[in-house]
Known about the structure:
Layout: H1 7-37, H2 42-55, H3 62-69, H4 73-85, E1 89-93, E2 101-105, H5 107-144
Antiparallel strand pairs: 1-2
Helix pairs in contact: 1-5, 2-3, 2-5, 3-4
Amino acid sequence: MTAGANPLDLDEEYQALSEFRYQIRKFLHFSEQAARAAGLEPSQHQALLALKALGLTGEPNIRDLAERMQLKHHSAVGLIDRLASKGLVRRGPGKRDRREVTLCLTEHGESVLRDLSLHHRRELQSAGPELLRVLEQLIRDQNHER
């Protein structure tokens, strides 16, 4: 929003921002419900997804997970404890530094994440076009102000 924009333009931008936040919230609500239906808390699903992605490029540890999820270290430890107790994640020694504790998904964790990810992909194929339309409107409107 620019200081010189006329009130009508601002009203349209408020509507677009509101719609964008609504579409995001709808997707997040879907995601939370899907995680719970799979027997997970939403943060546990998010942690599985983060660990999978981090593991594709390195050896994730608690510090990496905490950063990715914007958690304090002790909160990430508790989250990993709960995931490990469900058999979804395991701790192990680092390959480069055996003193470091690394994290990886178990086969069960991989399976749960795969099922949830496929479910999320279907939802995004359905809801994504509207989310994209609103985001493009916001970006387009922002670019016109320059």
